[in-house]
Design goal:
The structure holds two protein chains of two kinds. The N and C termini of chain A lie far apart (about 35 Å). By secondary structure, chain A is mainly β. The model of chain A has no long low-confidence stretch (mean pLDDT about 95). In chain A, about 0% of the residues lie in helices and about 55% in strands. Chain A is globular, with a radius of gyration of 13 Å. Chain B is about 0% helix and about 55% strand. Chain B has no helices and twelve strands. The mean pLDDT of chain B is about 95. By secondary structure, chain B is an all-beta fold. In chain B, the strands form three sheets. In chain B, strands 2, 5, 6, 10, 11 and 12 form a six-stranded mixed sheet that branches. The relative contact order of chain B is 0.35. The chains are: A mainly beta, B mainly beta. At the A-B interface, strand 4, strand 5, strand 9 and strand 10 of A face strand 11 of B.
């Protein structure tokens, strides 16, 4: 099956700093990628839809200035958490659509 | 809009036995599909099974099968001959306008 990677898999940062998470489709091109957030023992919450070459579409309640998404190529989307705070600590998962959706392994963000 | 409800937060099954996870949904889409994803402790999302709504025949994948009742908007997952590796969070869901909508999840434990 198709492979989606995320980097880093785990990141710890200080409050007030920005963190960038990369999502790559390794063996297929994806015009559309998705970013999810997941708290422990809870479901995946869609944050935004990332379209190559255009602005991301954010779900209601998600701050677009806080969570910057860039989809500069058909194989790479990035999520930047700006001025991170402890409440941003979570598990972030991306998926890429190549026919069906393929999920990355996730990134655990801890903000101190 | 689509909603997905999993009413069983936790389920337990004895190894080699059969277990059924429940899921109900509501959708305004005329062309949709439903799915079950598994999320083991590694947190990698793994597609277990997918059902196109227009197909009357229930989907099966080895030990996994679904009972799709379209009129009742029910989509349950049956796991036969349960194995220790089946222990995971299971998410039911469906597509809506290109996005995936997930239920709350059911945590399945398998007793040896």
């Amino acid at each position: 099956g198709a492979v989606v990677s995320q980097h880093p898999s785990w990141v710890i940062c200080k409050s007030g700093t920005s963190v960038k998470i990369e999502c790559r489709s390794l063996d297929f091109q994806a015009t559309t990628m998705f970013w999810y957030r997941q708290f422990p023992k809870q479901s995946l919450m869609l944050m935004a839809t990332s379209n190559e070459g255009s602005k991301a579409t954010y779900e209601q309640g998600v701050e677009k200035d806080k969570f910057l998404i860039n989809h500069a190529s058909l194989t790479l989307s990035t999520l930047t958490v700006t001025s991170a705070h402890p409440e941003d600590s979570s598990f972030y998962i991306c998926s890429a659509r190549g026919g069906e959706q393929f999920f990355g392994p996730g990134t655990r963000l801890t903000v101190l | 809009a689509q909603t997905v409800t999993q009413s069983q937060p936790e389920m337990s099954v004895q190894e080699a036995e059969t277990v059924t996870l429940s899921c109900t949904y509501d959708t305004s889409e005329s062309d949709y599909y439903l799915f079950w994803y598994k999320q083991p402790p590694s947190r990698q999302m793994i597609l277990v099974i997918r059902q196109e709504a227009y197909k009357q025949q229930n989907a099966t994948e080895n030990r996994f099968s679904v009972n799709f009742q379209k009129a009742a908007k029910s989509f349950s997952l049956k796991i036969s001959d349960s194995q220790l590796g089946d222990a995971a969070m299971y998410f039911c869901g469906g597509n809506q306008g290109g996005k995936l909508i997930f239920g709350q999840g059911t945590e399945l434990s398998v007793k040896p």
